[in-house]
Design goal:
Layout lengths: L3 H5 L2 H13 L15 H6 L2 H15 L7 E2 L2 H14 L9 E2 H8 L14 E5 L2 H5 L5 H7 L5 E2 L15 H4 L1 H16 L5 E4 L2 H13 L5 E4 H7 L2
Parallel strand pairs: 1-2, 3-4, 3-5, 5-6
Helix pairs in contact: 2-12, 10-11
């Protein structure tokens, strides 16, 4: 399940996700009829439009016997929490976030590789991950790669300030939250900032570039794919 931000800005994350899943023995199918999960209109309160998009997404992706995996905690959360609110009288299959699928469904908690990745990494946990019960699944995969050092982050559960449309309707507040997050992420001088959500990556990356800091921003799937 590709995300809108992945489609528009982070195509490499989609490619990396396919490489990772195929490396682990999965038969990956990408349906190019897919569009959006429906979260933007859902968050904006336009539940009528959100239901139309959600119904289409379910028809295209959630077929019997097919497991849906996405490199985005927010899209996975939408299929679990949002769809149940949109259709409270229905049962819904749901999408797995990538690291959740790898660790909890495939039982892989260590990334087996002979390659090294000599980087100090600050890992930002996306807020939506908590909504679906994610903890350190992505971090434990990344830190098992030889050479990776995860730096400690003060207030690690703090939001980045993106919040989808929130950053548009409340730009000042969004920026202030982002600045506070960036301060904690940079405290221990990492080489890269890594996350599992592209909304967070886009927000933090944009703010960092605007401030003249060109630190590398990456999705963890890209690191896993590079070290296959």
């Amino acid at each position: 399940m590709l995300t809108c931000l992945c489609d528009a800005f982070y195509g490499n994350v989609g490619i990396a996700t396919v490489k990772v899943l195929e490396h682990l023995g999965c038969d990956v199918h990408f349906d190019d009829r897919q569009t959006c999960c429906g979260q933007p209109p859902f968050n904006a309160g336009d539940w009528k439009q959100a239901r139309e998009i959600a119904n289409y997404t379910k028809e295209i992706l959630f077929q019997e016997g097919q497991t849906v995996v996405t490199p985005s905690a927010s899209c996975a959360a939408m299929t679990r929490e949002g769809y149940h609110l949109l259709f409270p009288d229905q049962e819904h299959p749901h999408a797995f976030e990538l690291s959740e699928f790898i660790t909890n469904e495939l039982g892989i908690t260590k990334w087996e590789t002979t390659k090294t990745y000599n980087k100090k990494i600050a890992f930002h946990r996306a807020c939506h991950g908590r909504g679906i019960g994610l903890t350190n699944e992505a971090e434990q995969l990344v830190v098992s790669i030889p050479g990776v050092e995860l730096v400690p982050i003060r207030n690690s559960e703090q939001c980045c300030g993106f919040g989808g449309a929130f950053c548009v309707v409340e730009p000042h507040l969004s920026s202030e939250i982002g600045k506070a997050k960036i301060e904690t992420l940079l405290e221990n001088q990492p080489d890269e900032i890594v996350s599992g959500d592209m909304g967070c990556l886009m927000h933090l990356g944009g703010m960092l570039k605007h401030g003249g800091n060109n630190i590398r921003i990456r999705h963890y799937a890209e690191i896993l794919a590079e070290t296959i």
